[in-house]
Amino acid sequence: MIQTRPVILCGGSGTRLWPLSRSGFPKQFLCLTGKESLFQQATRRLVGLAGEDIDVSAPFIVTNEEHRFLALEQMREIGVNTASVLLEPVGRNTAPALTLAALAAREDEQDPILIVTPADQAVADTTAFTAAMHAATRQAAEGAIVILGVPPTAPETGYGYIKVAAAAQPGPIFSVERFVEKPDAATASRFLAEGGYYWNAGMFVLKASVWLETLAQFRPDILHATREAWERRSIDAAFIRPAKAGFGAVPAESIDYAVMEPLSATRHTIKMVPLDAGWSDLGAWDAVCP
Predict the structure, then answer these.
(1) Residue 50 needs a FRET pair 20 to 30 A away by CA distance; which of 11, 83, 140, 194 works?
(2) Please, are residues 270 and 164 in contact by the beta-carbon 8 Å criterion?
(3) pTM of the predicted structure, to 2 decimals
């Protein structure tokens, strides 16, 4: 049985949807599609990923002090009462956030596969999402780092892109050639015409140990500082708090910049699974009200 733990990154402020989304009540806690918040929908999708060969343990929620009770209450509303809530004293971007979850996952000497997603995205087709995550999880069980890529439907300039190599074997698994920054309109149109490019959804699947080992290779400063803050953590009921002063010294960096992009330039292969599931990051009003 493959052991997994969801990691829901819930620290964003959603300022692009102001005034509905604001610092005290950001986008992920709003009901923008359906009757549940984006955070509740993300939590449901991940805790429901269990399959014949896949076991799903209680999720890690990485958020902040200001939203801790909001996150707990929204989880209670959907019957999720066993999550570990990791509170960032200050936002340091996604690489330190994932590192906190990986360190927590390794505390009991286990090495689960971490299924990492933002809390503020919409997915229309849960069945397709589950199938893609199962394929990614089975790859990660073999030691791979796997990213989810969304097939582009328009020459979108607001997303980063993933360039993949032609599939070497049947099945929805590709090798990542490189990551591409947000393009201009002409470049985005060329990507769409050429094919082989996917939107970067910011979803990752990998073993906790693989993340920590790879971070040690490319950004040991982030790992060292985050580990120091983690080792001096405090626990208060459902909340786990890394040391404030120590975490404030952690370099702020994204998962992509810290690890994925430099790793893609080496001989190590990052895998990509297409996510064709009606995905949207709802990053602007025209995505919420098309």
Answers:
(1) 11
(2) no
(3) 0.93
